[in-house]
């Protein structure tokens, strides 16, 4: 089932173009239901959790978590998306270079504990951003080029603190009917990417098919949310 999309690639510049042209149907103007309904399992009684948002766009989820006293670090290739996040949430921000990543910038909120790195995700590392107590991955693993998934998983695992709780949102559909992105990521691949070093629990599985997806030619779309935690040594 992975074969139809195995060689699909999207250049980073294409994602920047989507933002420039406002072709951002993937952006959600409200907090994601799957995050809201599973957030207690992510917090696990903890306060002041450091959250990582890979390929964060301008997700309103970041402000929602910061408003609850958590800190947020995101990585996004589009400078426009990062600036829109702060502007649309009426936040002032600073902008500075990231010495360890040539050409990268980090945008920091003046009011909230939010830092967004504008760079290629694969140039980010724990030596730059530290490790995290939680990760919210919506529209990230499903958006990267399928051939890069092993590299992506290795990066995510390296960013996980010992107590990290990683919430991963994946999509199941017939990949012969739609080329992606978002790409099809079956549960078996989640297991092969993360199962060696992490425990994986399927928290929720919902029918997510809408008219938008029918327009893509899909006849079913299932959205799964997994909770991934490092195995205790």
TrEMBL record:
GO terms for cellular component: cytoplasm. Gene3D superfamilies: Vaccinia Virus protein VP39. Its EC number is 2.1.1.67. InterPro entries: SAM-dependent_MTases_sf (IPR029063), Thiopurine_S-MeTrfase (IPR025835), TPMT (IPR008854). It is found in: Cytoplasm. GO terms for biological process: methylation. Its main location: cytoplasm. One of its GO terms (molecular function) is thiopurine S-methyltransferase activity. Keywords: Cytoplasm, Methyltransferase, S-adenosyl-L-methionine, Transferase. Signal peptide: none annotated. It catalyses: S-adenosyl-L-methionine + a thiopurine = S-adenosyl-L-homocysteine + a thiopurine S-methylether. It comes from the Eukaryota. PANTHER family: THIOPURINE S-METHYLTRANSFERASE. Belongs to the class I-like SAM-binding methyltransferase superfamily. TPMT family. This is thiopurine S-methyltransferase. It comes from Sparus aurata. The gene is LOC115578729.
């Amino acid at each position: 089932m992975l074969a139809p999309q195995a060689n699909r690639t999207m250049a980073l510049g294409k994602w920047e173009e989507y933002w420039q042209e406002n072709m951002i149907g993937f952006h959600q103007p409200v907090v994601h239901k799957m995050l809201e309904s599973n957030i207690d399992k992510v917090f696990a009684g903890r306060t002041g959790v450091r959250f990582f948002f890979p390929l964060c766009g301008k997700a309103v989820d970041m402000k929602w978590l910061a408003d609850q006293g958590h800190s947020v670090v995101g990585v996004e290739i589009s400078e426009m998306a990062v600036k829109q996040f702060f502007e649309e949430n009426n936040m002032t921000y600073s902008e500075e270079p990231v010495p360890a990543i040539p050409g990268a910038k980090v945008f920091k909120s003046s009011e909230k504990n939010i830092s967004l790195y504008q760079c290629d995700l694969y140039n980010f590392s724990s030596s730059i951003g530290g490790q995290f107590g939680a990760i919210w991955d919506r529209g990230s693993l499903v958006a990267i080029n399928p051939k890069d998934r092993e590299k992506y998983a290795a990066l995510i695992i390296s960013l996980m603190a010992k107590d990290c709780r990683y919430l991963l949102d994946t999509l199941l559909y017939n990949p012969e009917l739609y080329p992606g992105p978002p790409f099809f990521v079956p549960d078996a691949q989640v297991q092969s990417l993360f199962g060696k070093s992490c425990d994986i629990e399927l928290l929720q599985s919902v029918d997510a098919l809408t008219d938008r997806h029918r327009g893509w030619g899909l006849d079913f779309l299932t959205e799964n949310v997994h909770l991934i935690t490092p195995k205790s040594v």
